[in-house]
From TrEMBL:
InterPro entries: Methyltransf_11, SAM-dependent_MTases_sf. Residues 220-322 form the Methyltransferase type domain. SUPFAM superfamilies: S-adenosyl-L-methionine-dependent methyltransferases (SSF53335). Residues 1-26 are annotated as: Disordered. This is Methyltransferase type 11 domain-containing protein. It comes from Volvox africanus.
C-alpha cells in the first residue's frame, strides 16, 4: 500500500536525519534526500485516502508506527487514531498494475515506476518478447520496452530538437561499443593492478553481504556493465530475479549476448531483466528494493552523492547496498599508517583532478565513502580492503532502529532547534 509505505519510509528518513529537521509545525517540505514523503501530519492524512483494499490489521500496524513517530515529534496522537479509523472503514480495490510492490516478500515480478513522476507502476514477469511500450498517463510518456532492454531513462523515446544534455566523460566512455566489447575481454581483468581479487572472489564477498537481505527477492545490479556479476547472481539461484541495469546501451547489448550464449535465454529459473536506467533517477518505488550491487562503478558516476541519495530512497528498510571501487594512490600506505596520516600526500598524485595526468574518474578515500553513505541515512558500514581495492556494504535502517535514533536525537520529545 503506497500510503502505508510512505509512513514506513518517513520513519526511516526521520530516524537517520532527526537532528536536521526543524520543529515548526508549518514545515511542509518533502525530505530532500530520500523520498517524496512529507512530515508525519501530512503523511497521516494520506492514510484516509487509501485505495488499495487495505485491511484493518495493516492500518493498525501503520498507525502504530506513525503514532510513535508523531509522539517523538510532539504532535497529537489522536490524529493518527482518526486516520487509522477512517482507513479501516474504506473498502476499495485497484488493478494489480497500479499497486505498490511489496519489497519484503519474495516475488517473481519485476516492479518499476515512471522515472519522471515516480508514481505510475509497471510490472513485468520477464523480458518482452516483442517491442512494446510502458505508458504513464500522468506524464503523457511512453517508454520503450523491447527484447533488447527496457529504457526507463528520462528522455527515452523523445527526440529533442535543440536541447542536448551535457555528457560526462566517465559515463560516455562506456557507451562506446568497442569498450563494451573489450570489457570482459581484458579490460576488467586489468583491475588486478589495483588489488581487485578477480570476479569470482569479488562475487563471493558481495554475496556474503547480499544474501541476508535479498535471498529469494529481486536483486538490482546497478551499472552492471557486460553483466559480469548479473549472470553470476542469476546462476546462483539465490534470488527471485536480477535486474541488470546500466546507462550504456552497448553494455546492455553485451549482457544480452553473454546471457544468450551461456544459457540460451534471459527467462530462466532466475530471470534477468535488462534495464537502461540512470543511477541519479532510479525507476523504482521508494522503499521497494531489497538490495543493490554496483561493481567497480561509483567512481564513474557523475554525481555520487545524488546517486547514493537515490539508492537510499529505493532501498527497503533493512535493505543493503554493496559496491566496489578504487581507492586513492595513498591508500596502500594509509592501510599501514592510517588514512589521516597520509592524507596530505594526496596532492602529489598526478591522476587527481587538476593533476598532470587527471582522469574523468574519482579515486576514493575510505572516509569519503563513509561520508557519502552517512549523509543519506545509510548505516552499518562494513568493508573489505586491499591495496587500492575496496568493497563496502551499508544498510537502510529498519523502522525500529530509525525510531530509536529519532527518540535518542530528540530526547524523546519534540524536535531539536
Amino acid at each position: 500500500m503506497k500510503q502505508l509505505s510512505s509512513i514506513r519510509h518517513q520513519a526511516s528518513c526521520m530516524g537517520s536525519r532527526a537532528s536536521r529537521h526543524p520543529s515548526s509545525s508549518s514545515h511542509n517540505a518533502i525530505c530532500p534526500l530520500h523520498c517524496t514523503a512529507r512530515r508525519p501530519a501530512i503523511a497521516l492524512a494520506l492514510v484516509t485516502k487509501t485505495s488499495d483494499g487495505v485491511t484493518a490489521p495493516q492500518v493498525a500496524a501503520g498507525a502504530a508506527v506513525a503514532s510513535r513517530i508523531v509522539s517523538t515529534y510532539g504532535q497529537p496522537r489522536r490524529t493518527v487514531v482518526a486516520a487509522a479509523a477512517a482507513a479501516a472503514s474504506t473498502s476499495t480495490t485497484t488493478s494489480p498494475s497500479s499497486k505498490s510492490p511489496s519489497p519484503l516478500s519474495p516475488s517473481n515480478e519485476f516492479d518499476f515506476v515512471c522515472p519522471i513522476c515516480l508514481q505510475t507502476h509497471f510490472s513485468l514477469s520477464s523480458m518482452p518478447s516483442q517491442s512494446t511500450g510502458l505508458s504513464c498517463g500522468r506524464c503523457q510518456r511512453t517508454f520503450p520496452a523491447s527484447p533488447a532492454y527496457l529504457d526507463l531513462t528520462l528522455t527515452s523515446g523523445v527526440r529533442q530538437k535543440v536541447y542536448k544534455q551535457r555528457s560526462w566523460g566517465g559515463t560516455e566512455l562506456f557507451r562506446n561499443p568497442l569498450v563494451s566489447f573489450a570489457y570482459e575481454r581484458g579490460w576488467r581483468q586489468g583491475f588486478a593492478w589495483a588489488g581487485f581479487p578477480g570476479a569470482d572472489k569479488e562475487y563471493d564477498i558481495a554475496m556474503s553481504y547480499l544474501l541476508p537481505a535479498a535471498s529469494g527477492k529481486v536483486l538490482v545490479d546497478m551499472s552492471c556493465g557486460s553483466g559480469l556479476f548479473s549472470r553470476r547472481f542469476a546462476r546462483s539461484g539465490s534470488f527471485a530475479g536480477v535486474v541488470a541495469a546500466d546507462f550504456s546501451e552497448s553494455m546492455l547489448q553485451q549482457t544480452r549476448e553473454y546471457c544468450l550464449a551461456e544459457g540460451g535465454t534471459l527467462n530462466g529459473s532466475t530471470p534477468i531483466m535488462l534495464l537502461r536506467a540512470d543511477v541519479g533517477r532510479l525507476p523504482f518505488a521508494t522503499g521497494s528494493v531489497a538490495a543493490i550491487h554496483a561493481g567497480a562503478a561509483i567512481h564513474c558516476w557523475p554525481n555520487p552523492q545524488v546517486a547514493l541519495a537515490e539508492i537510499s530512497r529505493v532501498l527497503a528498510p533493512g535493505g543493503v547496498f554493496v559496491a566496489s571501487t578504487f581507492l586513492s594512490a595513498t591508500a596502500p600506505l594509509g592501510q599501514v599508517l592510517g588514512d589521516d596520516a597520509v592524507r596530505p600526500l594526496a596532492v602529489l598524485d598526478p591522476t587527481t583532478a587538476g593533476g598532470l595526468m587527471s582522469t574523468p574518474y574519482r579515486w576514493w578515500e575510505e572516509q569519503e565513502l563513509r561520508d557519502l553513505c552517512t549523509a543519506v541515512g545509510l548505516e552499518d558500514f562494513h568493508r573489505e580492503r586491499d591495496w587500492r581495492f575496496i568493497m563496502f556494504a551499508v544498510s537502510k535502517p529498519t523502522e525500529a532502529s530509525s525510531l530509536d535514533s529519532a527518540a535518542a536525537g530528540t530526547g524523546g520529545e519534540g524536535s531539536p532547534s
